């Protein structure tokens, strides 16, 4: 066998392997974890529309923010006190 013939056979084999890898791997160009929608589709689970969209929080009123602030100040003061003891 001539070198050119061997080289041609190797190139053909490489192309076959590349196509097989692309078919099995889906041609993934982005490494890492796929987005949630893709993961759910792969697992065969359909997400309800309410879960698929991001939930929004109600804004806190000034009084609620102040109450939360006081609770957290008391919480951290207690944590510091217990850490010293």
Report on this model:
The chain is built from 4 helices and no strands. It is mostly helical and 85 residues long. It is elongated, with a radius of gyration of 29 Å. The relative contact order is 0.05. The model has no long low-confidence stretch (mean pLDDT 81).
Brief summary:
With 85 residues, the protein is mostly helical.
Keyphrases for this structure?
85 residues; elongated; mainly alpha; 4 helices; 68% helix
Strand content is: under 5%
**Secondary-structure element sequence?**
HHHH
Radius of gyration over C-alpha positions, nearest whole angstrom: 29 Å
Shape: elongated
Q: How many beta strands in the DSSP annotation?
A: 0
Tally of helical runs: 4
* Mean pLDDT reading: 81
Structural class: mainly alpha
Span between termini: 85 Å
Largest sheet entry: none
């Amino acid at each position: 066998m001539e070198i050119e013939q061997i080289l041609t056979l190797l190139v053909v084999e490489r192309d076959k392997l590349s196509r097989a890898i692309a078919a099995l791997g889906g041609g993934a160009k982005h490494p890492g974890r796929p987005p949630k929608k893709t993961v759910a589709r792969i697992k065969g689970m359909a997400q309800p529309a309410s879960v698929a969209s991001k939930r929004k929080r109600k804004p806190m009123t000034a009084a609620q923010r102040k109450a939360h602030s006081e609770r957290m100040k008391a919480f951290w003061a207690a944590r510091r006190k217990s850490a010293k003891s």
